[in-house]
């Protein structure tokens, strides 16, 4: 399921919404995967305590939407930071060129 060499793989089980999911992961990824599962479960609990829902599918859908939105916002922020950096570097390059010419 996850990339990595066979010598460094672990068989683990994580629980999401009280359902176990078995997977083979790279040893270096185990902690991150377990933390991700823990965050998902925390968000499920938060939504269950806050909103009306029919079943866990509703909670999983809302949590998926929340994490996707958060991820997209982070990507956009990174893109904006990169664009600002590139713009600043171009301005600096222009100023240096003008300095050399003048």
Classification by helices and strands? alpha+beta
Percentage of residues in helical conformation: 55-70%
The description of the largest β-sheet is: 2 strands, antiparallel
- Whole-number tally of structural domains: 1
Write the layout of secondary structure elements.
Layout: E1 9-16, E2 19-26, H1 30-50, H2 56-101
Antiparallel strand pairs: 1-2
Describe the structure.
This protein is α+β, with helices and mostly antiparallel strands and 102 residues long. It has one domain. Helix content is 66%, strand content 16%. The chain contains two helices and two strands, in the order ββαα. The chain has helices spanning 30-50, 56-101; strands at residues 9-16, 19-26. A two-stranded antiparallel sheet has the order 1-2. β1 and β2 form a beta hairpin. α1 packs across α2. The radius of gyration is 22 Å and the shape is elongated. 4% of the residues are buried. The model has no long low-confidence stretch (mean pLDDT 88).
Provide key terms for this protein.
single chain; 102 residues; alpha+beta; two-stranded antiparallel ribbon; 2 helices; 2 strands; 16% strand; elongated
Summarize the structure.
Helix content is 66%, strand content 16%.
């Amino acid at each position: 399921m996850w990339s990595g060499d066979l010598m460094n793989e672990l068989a683990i089980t994580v629980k999401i919404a009280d359902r176990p999911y078995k997977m083979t992961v790279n040893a270096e990824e185990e902690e991150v995967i377990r933390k991700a599962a823990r965050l998902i479960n925390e968000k499920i609990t938060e939504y269950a305590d806050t909103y009306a829902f029919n079943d866990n599918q509703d909670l999983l859908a809302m949590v998926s939407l929340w994490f996707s939105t958060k991820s997209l916002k982070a990507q956009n922020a990174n893109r904006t930071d990169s664009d600002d950096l590139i713009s600043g570097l171009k301005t600096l390059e222009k100023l240096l060129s003008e300095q050399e010419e003048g």
